[in-house]
Design a protein that fits this description.
Radius of gyration of chain A: 22 Å
Structural class of chain B: alpha/beta
Number of helices of chain B: 17
Number of helices of chain A: 14
Strand content of chain A: under 5%
Number of domains of chain A: 1
Distance between the termini of chain B: 59 Å
Strand order of the largest sheet of chain A: 1-2
CATH class of chain A: Mainly Alpha
CATH architecture of the largest domain in chain B: 3-Layer(aba) Sandwich
Distance between the termini of chain A: 43 Å
Number of domains of chain B: 2
Number of strands of chain B: 20
CATH class of the largest domain in chain B: Alpha Beta
Bound molecules: adenosine-5'-triphosphate, magnesium ion
Oligomer: heterodimer
CATH topology of the largest domain in chain B: Rossmann fold
Helix content of chain B: 25-40%
CATH superfamily of the largest domain in chain B: P-loop containing nucleotide triphosphate hydrolases
Amino acid sequence: MSIHPEQTAASDPRLVRFGRYLADNPVIPLIAFLFFLISLLEVMRPGIVLPFLGGREGIISTFWVGNLIKFAIPLAMIAACQVLTMLTAGIDLSAGIVATCSAFVCATLMPLIGPVPAVLIAMAVGVVVGLVNGFGVGVVRVHPLIMTLGTGLIATGCLQVYQRFVIATGTEIPAFLEWLGTGRTFAMPNGLFLFIPFAIFIIWLMRATGFGRLLFALGSNEHAAKLSGVRSWQVFLALYALSGLIASVAGLLYLGMIRAPSLSLANPLMLPSVAAAVIGGTSIFGGRGSFAGAIVGALILRVIDTMLTLLQMPEGARIALFGLIILLVTALYVRITGTR
Amino acid sequence: MDEVQRESLLDASGIAKSFGAVKALSDASLHVARGEVVALMGANGAGKSTFVKILTGALRPDSGKVLIRGTEARVGSPAQARRSGLVPVYQEPSLIPDLDVADNLRLGDTPVDPCLNWVNDLGVDGLRLDHMIADLPLATLRILDLARALAAEPDVLLLDEMTAALPTDLVENVLRVVRAQADEGRGVIYISHRFTEISELCDSATVLRDGRSVGDLKIEPGVENRVVEMMLGAKIDLGARETGTARTNEGIPRIRARGLAVAPKVTDVSFDLYPGEVLGVVALEGQGQDEVFDVLAGFRKPTGGAFEVDGAPVSFGHPADAIAAGLTFVPGDRAEALLRERSVHENIALPFSARAGSWGPLKTRHERERVGHAIDKLQIDTRAKGEVQRLSGGNQQKVTIGRWLAHGVETLLLFDPTRGIDVRTKRQIYPLVRELADQGAAVLFYTSELEEVPLACDRAVVIFNGRVVDVIDAAEADEETLMRAAYGLTEDKAAS
Ligand SMILES: Nc1ncnc2c1ncn2[C@@H]1O[C@H](COP(=O)(O)OP(=O)(O)OP(=O)(O)O)[C@@H](O)[C@H]1O
Ligand SMILES: [Mg+2]
């Protein structure tokens, strides 16, 4: 057989390499997309982001940016629940309701027992729901979708019963939650005092701890994890309890932001939280995910939401369009990076 | 070449393929004529599987030329390859685990009756159409994969380490069937790391080294050493035995199994495994060895009998219990053991984080040292270390062994650990196992390749029909003895 001269590789590797680079660094195209959306917003309503061009003070509207971040924070926190559970090919559909419950419990108990016990009990509610989820998923092996949907419904029911009992006490919101939720420091929302350490903790947990490694492992191949001596029920129990805790903290922050506890306070965050995680490059099939991506995903969704509000659409059309855009963005992202 | 009159079926030349920075193939060529079985040889990571995937349209080459029956062809997709008569059996089982056999056949447009006939002809009985793929043993899946390919009546059959998970009896059947295919005028490309198969089956060999074709050879007696030299670019001695002197076992055995039974396959398995010893397990397909390993590894409970570890009776409810007792398991099917989309490092370091007490911060430096040590010892090709699924089959296999090497072993349960690993690395794994044993580890070593028994083991137990029927001195055993034992021909003088 003849020997052939070595041929140089054909031309397309550059594109392939770009795709792979993006797949390994999902945050970069997302940030680019975020800036694209913000530019689009500026074109739609000149001056909203760059008041300088609109003839007002400052180069960038720190107020607008602050607002964007402020409302993205609770969404990003609930998205953390989704990212962590999705790593194991799960999901936490109870997170929104848990956030609502915690907020409601806190606001109603506050007049009775004071701020600190109220907050602690509110967080305990989240942990308890999470433990039930973890038990169902890890020990009884119910599918996470069904399990968390179920506990979510149960929690909603319990909340309504609870409401009957506490109707007389009135509600009050702990001052520090209000400070976190509505206050600003150098034009940036105080919520960042909570969120920045939180985000660092989650990223550290995912990347640099044994627990984080096991989340990826369980999502990638549970049998292999078992073979290596991992008792998966322990991990699921801890994971869903953590997710419940995060959801309730997010709910408390949201309470401080909205200042009007209701029986459906944080529920509208539920589906966007899943979308933020998916847009952020987390695979619902497990084994792949990034919280940094989910944060950018939450910001993107907030910008899109602002846009739709600016277009002054009827509520129904707005929601439908929101869903459509989520699908398009996700599909586009998957196309570029070749991930799922 | 010598027989010009034979019609050429497949001619590939100058094939190149890179994955990002990894150059899998740089200049590969291959030639198959009617009636010919061509061995495609090369070390782990040489590019064999990549070559097969390119020829069958699963991957697109960066450059190169393919002639099918003399005319230039562009094989754009597996379906197109199939239409041109090129049918592969890939290295990893390609059946969908969550579907049953019937659905899988339907998906592949495989005619059912011919396929089942082939399954029977290849020596697997009792396969039903409603069996879930996930429940079938690996060997059956490989046979089913081959039967599917045969049922498609290919012109050129491309078999990528088809026999790597198969025990002797099934291998014999595969070789017989493949030879018959060639004799009927088909062409076969055959990949295997087992030289006995190559010399029994193949007419010629094409050798790949680092993605480049380095030459063609006719298969004739004594050609092995030349092939190995071409594959590796260096000589190694294939004859050398690494087993030590005959050992005398005394004291308390690490594992003492008495009358183990797992319904319905295993009825009576007893053996002693001592520290410092490598105990081989010789068995044909499906004699109960899978179940015995599953019991020892904590995956299932025995239905009868008992076993002790270091003299204390144990009963494992979870693999974590087995690991806590020092029993670590390398399963036969690497797909069960690997986190496909995670890195080599993470795969090897996984057991470090398994216990709830070690969920905290990773001990990065300690881990990196241990993992690096395992990678060096096993010579894992880490050019594509970001995701284990990008490694070549043999290198993936090494990762499954490396995991426990890094972790440290007391009792190692190896189920066909050298599956798909090339000659050179095998020659490094046997001494490595020996070294572990010399340091006090006890090793139970099942292999589907009987040749390995004298090379790696001290003694071997023979399991036939769910019972231990013989214990033989491995260093003394030649292949024929082992074969007779494996077929249960020594059953009358059953052990203890
Ligand atoms: N998808 C991929 N991405 C990156 N690298 C890859 C990919 N697939 C294969 N490679 C690399 O290409 C090289 C050749 O791999 P290939 O699987 O063809 O080897 P092989 O000869 O079949 O080896 P083995 O005997 O171990 O099966 C390896 O270095 C491997 O890491
Ligand atoms: Mg291969």
